[in-house]
User: Fold TetR/AcrR family transcriptional regulator from Rubrivivax benzoatilyticus.
Amino acid sequence: MPKTTRPALPAPPPTVEIEGGIRGATRRLLLDAAMALIREGQVPTLPEVARRAEVSRATAYRYFPSRSALITAVIDVSLGPLRSFDSDEPDGRRRVAELFASTFPRFREFEPQMRAAVQLSLEHWALERAGRLKEEPYRRGHRVGILAHAIEPLAAELPVASLARLHRALSVLYGIEARVVLKDLWGATDAEVDATVGWMAEALVDASLRETAAAPAKAAKTRKSAR
Assistant:
């Protein structure tokens, strides 16, 4: 059987830090104002952030030229430490479990910010589709690199296609979306959300490994029946 070349798995993005000095202090002031407004239940505009921070609109726009830039910075500051997830656990199943167990508590802490990011992303999708979007669209996707590191040990056990499918499947669980479904539709507690998502992640990994282990026997049975 010919060897299949595996695609390189991207490294997780680095943690974002806020610079010091007056510029850093002003940036932090604006971000704190944005986070306060988000906790009050809205995706704020730059003028709203400027009013809360008691700075001019021009100042706010100088730091964040759009809501996309603002929410990107909010998420960078909120979830930055998660993006530097770096494990030397050699077992793929355990490394995936470690990722979910170590990072989901921070998702609880910054749930309003993550929901705001989803809200803005959906709004921009609708406006872009209608040809009415006036700023650069807000894009998400850091979880792809984070999960790539988590499943890296499994590259030695899974075919390329199976690894890619597992990567995509885990990306549905790792983030705010599963949390929204479980909390908003089912009324699940934070602990129930963490337990359910952790169980689903483990089940996906186990299913991928079982399927791969069973593939040779299945192929042999198919060849035998075809004779």
About this structure: The CA atoms of residues 14 and 84 lie 6 Å apart. The radius of gyration is 21 Å. Residues 1-17 have pLDDT under 50 and may be disordered.
